[in-house]
Amino acid sequence: QVQLVQSGAELKKPGASVKISCKASGFIFSNYGIHWVRQAPGQRLEWMGWINSGNGETKYSQKFQGRVTISRDTSAYTAFMEVHGLSSADTSVFYCARGSYPYFYGLDVWGQGTTVTVSS
Amino acid sequence: DIQMTQSPSTLSASVGDRVTITCRASQSINIWLAWYQQKPGRAPKFLIYKASTLETGVPSRFSGHGTGTDFTLTISSLQPDDFATYYCQQYHTYPYTFGQGTKLEIK
To answer: How far, in Å, CA of B22 to CA of A54, rounded?
Structure first.
């Protein structure tokens, strides 16, 4: 079935980086974009950016530009998001989600979420 | 960034009630709005796109309306499975911002 499966929970120290994977199955990976959304404890969903899985083009929220890198491996049907310079404010659940392109209508398939805890 | 504001933040209702959640954008977003349902500890579920089009498989008791800056999500007859938090998301302009959520609680 159509699904996105994310890598497991991470515990990181302040200043470290984290790289999360998102493996797709059940659909043609290169026909869709993969978006990343984070949710801090008790907070709203926050859109971070996306990658066009076909051509590799990326778009980031300005809030995360320069600190977040989204990439993909089309042969592995996997997208990745790396966050650099972590702080306690980055403690969140990170989700990957599928979005259509060139016309985006919403995020119709979501990964299960990856909890990243930043603590010294 | 376009600010999305939902009201109310919390809504208490009973099974069978009709409820409406409002989402307001800080500038016009035409019809480029989606709605999601999220339960505790779970990923969001996609409900509605283009303000009023139901995603495949979403029950017909859900409906969306609006254009420009003001939007609503209505559940015509609440079912036990509907108690959750609901988020709107605009996709008119990057970054694709979400509302703060409306928690629908059992009265």
So the answer is: 36
**Terminal-residue alpha carbon distance, chain A:** 40
- Measured distance CA(A31)–CA(A106) in Å, rounded: 15
Min Cα–Cα distance to chain A from B12, Å: 19
Residues B32-75 pLDDT 10s: 999 999 999 999 999 999 999 999 999 999 999 999 999 999 99
SS3 at position B9 = coil
Length in residues, chain B: 107
Chain A hits for B23, Cβ within 8 Å: none
Question: Tokens at residue A1, please?
Answer: 């079935």
Instruction: Report the C-alpha gap between B35 and B85 in whole angstroms.
Output: 11
Closest residue, chain A, to B4 (C-alpha)? A44
CB B95 within 8 A of CB B1: yes
